[in-house]
Design goal:
Elements lengths: L4 E8 L2 H12 L5 E5 L4 E3 L3 E7 L2 H13 L3 E9 L2 E7 L5 E6 L14 E8 L2 H10 L4 E5 L3 E4 L7 E6 H8 L5 E3 L3 E5 L4 E2 L5 E4 L7
Parallel strand pairs: 1-2, 4-7, 8-11, 13-15
Antiparallel strand pairs: 1-13, 3-12, 4-8, 5-6, 6-7, 9-10, 10-11, 14-15
Helix pairs in contact: 1-2
Length: 209
Amino acid sequence: MTSSIESVTLEVDDPAVARRFYSGAFGLDRQVRVRGSEAPTAGFRGFTLSLVVSQPADVNALVEAAVDAGATTLKPAAKSLWGYGAVVQAPDGTIWQIASSSKKDTGPATRRIDEIVLLLGVADMGGSKRFYVEHGLPVAKSFGSKYVEFETGSGAVKLALYKRRGLAKLVGVSPDGTGSHRITVNGDAGPFTDPDGFAWATASETASL
């Protein structure tokens, strides 16, 4: 049976502030959990989270809500070869991509989110790909050493791998970073720690957060 991801837990300096942000900006009360942490971290944490929506107006609505709630814009919303998107950084430091494959609006703006994708920046794409396949996540899409996306069943969060330096370039930050990733992935594949130091826990372990 394909493994799934129920949520992610972000380790933050101020849980109350983080909860208000994610609830107010994105409406993510179930899929994104938070807990307090003083683990040292600096620079790029090696991952991003993506919100996939249906049209550019929805991208703009979510970016506006995030900025109003305290986020910083890393890349303003703009068209690209693949669609339309923007990058913001939450007050706790987590980097969020907000994107649509469509370049044209088909209706009034909403803040409806179609998919949540966790992108992990990895050092060895081949090794990390094998690791996750062995832990019950079959490959759904693969583009050589650049990008791998996994089947994650009916889980709330999808998983993809990107080369670390490429992911940092994609969101407009330096790839340099040290210390804790400050994220735990909650699903039925764990508990384990992957080759790049990303920790997984069973969903039941984090149900009370």
